[in-house]
Write a structure and sequence with these properties.
Blueprint (H helix, E strand, L loop, with lengths): L6 E5 L3 H12 L3 E5 L10 H7 L3 E3 L5 H6 L2 E4 L8 H8 L3 E4 H6 L6 E5 L4 H14 L4 E5 L5 H10 L7 E5 L2 H5 L8 E4 L13 H9 L10 E5 L5 H7 L3 E7 L7 E4 L2 E5 L4 E5 L8 H16 L4 H10 L8 E6 L2 E5 L6 H9 L5 E5 L12 H7 E6 L4 H7 L5 E4 L3 H11 L5 E4 L12 H21 L2
Parallel strand pairs: 1-2, 1-4, 2-3, 4-5, 6-8, 6-9, 7-8, 9-10, 10-11, 11-12, 16-20, 17-18, 17-20, 18-19
Antiparallel strand pairs: 12-13, 13-14, 15-16
Length: 460
Amino acid sequence: MELRGLEVLVVGMARTGRSLARFLTAKGARVTVTDTRGPEEFSGYAAELEARGCRTSFGGHKREDFLRAELIVISPGVPLSMPLLQEARRAGSEIMSEVEFASRFITVPLLGVTGTNGKTTVVSVIGAMLERGGRRAFVGGNIGRPLVEYLNETDLDGGPEAEVVVAELSSFQLEAIDRFRPWVAVVLNITEDHLDRYRSFEEYVRAKLRIFENQGPDDYAVVPAHAPWEAYLSRRVRSTTIRFGLGEDAAAEVGWSGGTIRWRRQDSEETYSTARMKLTGLHNIENMMAAVVAARLCNVAPPVIQDVIDQFPGLEHRLEMVCEVDGVRFYNDSKGTTVASVVRALESFESPIILIAGGKDKGMDFTPLRPLLERRVKHLFLLGEARDRMARELAGTTDMTMVESLEEAVERSWDLAAPHDVVLLSPACSSFDMFEDYEERGRVYKKSVMETVQRGRAGR
């Protein structure tokens, strides 16, 4: 892909946009970065990009920037339905996502992982298995490091080339691909999410499944057994399919029962124990099965894989234990931004749960939470933009209270909690109504927990 002299528009000036602008200007492209936010939002980044020869356009997108561009690269938060993008495409501009752009320059095997829940855990486990097995790996994408950062680190900064690139991929990133082709493509699960962006659940599913569309016979598709979208696989996927599932499922090459993962290969069977696994919940067994397959395809030795299964500690903000005080356990699942992820979190505990939920409304149906709320949740605290609709859809399941802040929810949870209870932040919503992102929400929760229990214990 020849960049020198090419007129390129980068839409969005968060971390992805800044990384793109750095690579593009270094390769001689004529770059404009556009963002709806004002320059005060970007501290010194604007001046840094302008010093590299990049034009910046803040405070709203300008039509002439879109129509002048030969290539438009969009950040994940930018929908393809944006009218200016549609007009630019009709005028002849090529439009692609950052992962599509970066993949044009990546020359090592690429593993892609998508799904509604579990993506970050799985790419992190795969990365740990590769590194422990002596394979240099770059782990990026939706996990927080744009793939183009790999190009900056290796091409521009002279860093060592990875042997494998592992990419977490959101539906937003997969919307605008063209030739993107992972050697191993993993889809963990697909449940309702982002219905504030997609016209239907089916449209969201189609965006996820684009991960397979450019694969060939030498590639691999790693998928759940008996997925509702399995008919698509048989019609459209040309790669070798490896299915995983719980129990002794004959349709799944990789299964789990009795505390053991079993992979039935052509002429042998590999087994991995989950007895010492630190991650909780059956969903994490499924996540680990997918990671095992990806790592073995990269020739990581089974003893190394077993070691990572035993020792992987889990991720911050994903069912992360904050503390246990007077028999009350506090868990931070701020990354639980979908109904399905909250279901999995609730299923991970046998103890009574005080649940803190709510945030930005993404248009999802909250009623699938009703049975678990009735059986497992002793009190529900609701906050944020979605709280009124959640209260209507979940009415009658358990005692519930509206709160104005996360700090208030934590304080009132501590007052209600008894020994052996679990206080769980698992919002079922994104964070953008009250926080910068789920990470900030999780940090605020953990800080509030520690301050609240310290005050509470001092007063007893």
